# Entry
Amino acid sequence: MAILEVENLSKEYKGKGKGKGNGYQALRDISLSVDSGEFVAIMGPSGSGKTTLLNILSGIDTEYSGMVRIAETIISEMTKNELALFRRQRMGFVFQDYNLLDSLTLRENVMLPMVLDEQEVEDINAKTDATLLLFDIDEVKDKYPYTVSGGQQQRTAISRAIINDPDVIFADEPTGNLDSKSASTVMKCFSKLNSEQAATIVMVTHDPFAASFCSRVVFIKDGTVGMEIAREGTRKAFFDTILETLAVMGGGEDDF
Ligand SMILES: Nc1ncnc2c1ncn2[C@@H]1O[C@H](COP(=O)(O)OP(=O)(O)OP(=O)(O)O)[C@@H](O)[C@H]1O
# Structure
């Protein structure tokens, strides 16, 4: 069953110049569906509309036409307040620059969504500690974000994103600031989350290596879905297929 469904999504950034129709059409008539438990990458050349799409799917941007549904809720019909609550309780977010609060320890950062939700203290402690263990950051849990590595910060951000059992996790270039070893560890965390907990993950990335951990890659070009490929064999084989597809789509890695 599709947990995320998009129908006829279009987005025009209003032009700064004079007259009507002076805007920029960033997305054109996109329809897309993501099944529960899928791990999907969105790739495409710079300026193709990936971040615009992710911002709409995740409820950050509400100025668009078309329908976006998550689970049973049509988020394109929600008020700002309803959407804010829905985002906090039903979505998880992972950003390129981690977005952790420097004044809180890693453990406190992870538990924050449960604290904001006023859940039981015992549940908060148990869930937080289990999640820190799952992603192998329990040994540094009492440190502050600026004193640990980028990979540890990103694993903390992933822990925070899943602590409330969201319907879907949105990740925007989660390996963008990481060296290849940390990127690999972080992608293995996403994979584990997907395979062991059936988490649904939608990730924007330029990185074919990161995308090769997914079950499907959706390629965006000029604001529309250009092509989709599904993983069939090993991660390495999928990595090669992604590279070939990028070449066919007319964008080398330099364009991404
Ligand atoms: N606030 C804005 N106002 C006007 N145009 C915008 C705005 N944000 C993005 N755009 C334009 O919309 C298009 C899509 O931008 P978007 O950031 O979604 O692309 P992207 O695929 O995420 O690019 P990148 O890979 O470089 O991050 C680009 O041409 C961009 O210049």
Q: What stands out?
A: The chain has eight helices and ten strands. The radius of gyration is 18 Å. The pocket of adenosine-5'-triphosphate is lined by residues 13, 24, 26, 44, 46-52 (CB under 6 Å). The longest helix spans residues 180-197.
